[in-house]
Amino acid sequence: MGTNNFNFYHDEPLFGLDIGHSSMKVMQLDRNHGQLPKVLGYGVSNYYHNEAINNGVIVDYAALGKAMHELFAERLVGNITTRRVACTIPTAHTYSRPMALPPMDKKQIEGAVRLEAEQYIPMPVDKLYLDYDISHQDKDGIDLLMVASPKEMVDSYVNFLNSVGLEPVTMEPTLNASARLFSLADVGREEASILIDFGSVAIDVAVFDQAMFVNSTIQGGSDTVTVLVARQLGVSPAEAYVLKSQHGISPDSAMPSVGLAARPILEALVKEMRRIIRYYDERSAARHRQISQIITIGGGATLKGLNEFLSGEFKLPARRLDPWKHIDFGDLQSPSDLAKSMYVTVAGEAALSHKEIFE
Questions:
Q1: Helix (H) or strand (E) holding 296
Q2: Which of left, alpha, beta for 86 (phi over 0: left; psi -120 to 50: alpha)?
Q3: What residues form DSSP beta bridges with 129?
Q4: Which pLDDT does position 110 carry in this prediction?
Q5: How far is CA 50 from CA 20, 77, 150, 240, in A?
């Protein structure tokens, strides 16, 4: 996305980089040897201040540069062997819109996508990078997901990466990277699924049916839940974090007030899930496909009782994405089970193939 002029050699490796709200993760995979992708190196940075990224735009290169230097110097497990990087951008600051088109060629699709962006995205189209993913195509027409990203945001990532001596290969929304890992490594990848990426400050929701069908974002995430718990119980954020982690949101827990405090976020999530499920059902009736599972991703997915809550609301099985049986850490020490949740997105980015970049 917005990377048409980047130089890239097809036979060169790359590593994945996930720049989050307050920390960044890296991972490099070797997909050329053996049956399972092998982790060559991975790590997470120290925290940087929340103002380093403003509305998705990197504004404090020094803070992120310091965090990246410390990551590579002190916090890396294994090795990153290349400067070529595939980097995520926050889904919450991109625009997406499903489209149904009659049969047409690539040039006509690009024109239709541009026209759709001009009509429905509240930014001038010349300030956007446009892209699209085709979810279904046959003789009757094309279903695709248009994705638009502000040039100011994408360019800030490119400029930052160049400033620290890296060669950016491509950019894509965080949820696309997580969905790639789901499609490569989950036993239920053939089923129409709801994907929920429960981040620290936003929750991304998508229908994935062999490709991304529709997605959206609600503001508020695991950090927001911590703030709500602190306010509800009259404790510090640090104490609220501990209580949230220990008790979760189950009404049967020893402290049901934690779940009560989280209700505004949970209710907003359920409302948005119902909206995109309804949209999917209206457009997939001809294919006789129904959503059959809920997959949770991200650090917030470790919240106790979350999957049980979602399963109860939608009468569907809900579980955390667990791709790690299909990824080989070799001789490297693997992250703890709790820590693995924060590496899902960067692992999906590291799994990006050269073919995907150049298609």
A1: strand 293-297
A2: beta
A3: 149
A4: 96
A5: 10, 25, 20, 19
Architecture of domain 188-321 in CATH? Answer: 2-Layer Sandwich (3.30)
Structure-token pair, residue 157: 């990532």
Q: Where are the domains of the chain?
A: 1-91+151-186+323-359, 188-321
Same fold yes or no, 1-91+151-186+323-359 and 188-321: yes
The secondary structure element, H or E, covering residue 217 is: strand 212-219
Using alpha carbons, select from 311, 356, 351 the residue that is nearest to residue 196: 311
Nearest-angstrom CA–CA distance, 281 and 277: 6
262: amino acid identity, one letter = A
Work out whether the CA dihedral 271, 216, 183, 20 comes out positive or negative. negative
* Cα 332 to Cα 195: distance, rounded to the nearest angstrom: 29
Q: Which amino acid type is present at position 173?
A: P
CA distances to 202, 227, 272, 357 from 268, rounded to whole Å, are 11, 16, 6, 35
- CA gap 345, 297 in Å, rounded: 8
Could you give the CA distance from residue 318 to residue 18 in angstroms, rounded to a whole number? 25
The fold for domain 1-91+151-186+323-359 equals Nucleotidyltransferase; domain 5 (3.30.420)
For 208-262, write each residue's pLDDT tens digit: 988 888 899 999 999 999 999 999 999 999 999 999 999 999 888 889 999 999 9
Closest alpha carbon to 142 in 99, 173, 188, 81? 99
Ranges of H-type helices in 90-221: 106-120, 151-163, 174-185
CA torsion, points 340, 212, 221, 251, in degrees to nearest 10? -80
The 3-state DSSP class for residue 173 equals strand
8 A C-beta contact, residue 303 and residue 249: yes
Can you tell me the distance from the alpha carbon of 223 to that of 199, in angstroms, rounded to the nearest whole number? 8
CB 15 within 8 A of CB 86: yes
Amino acid at 48: Y
Q: Could you tell me the pTM of the whole model?
A: 0.90
**pLDDT tens-digit profile of 111-151?**
999 999 999 999 999 999 999 988 888 999 998 999 999 99
Return d(Cα 129, Cα 4) in angstroms, integer. Answer: 10
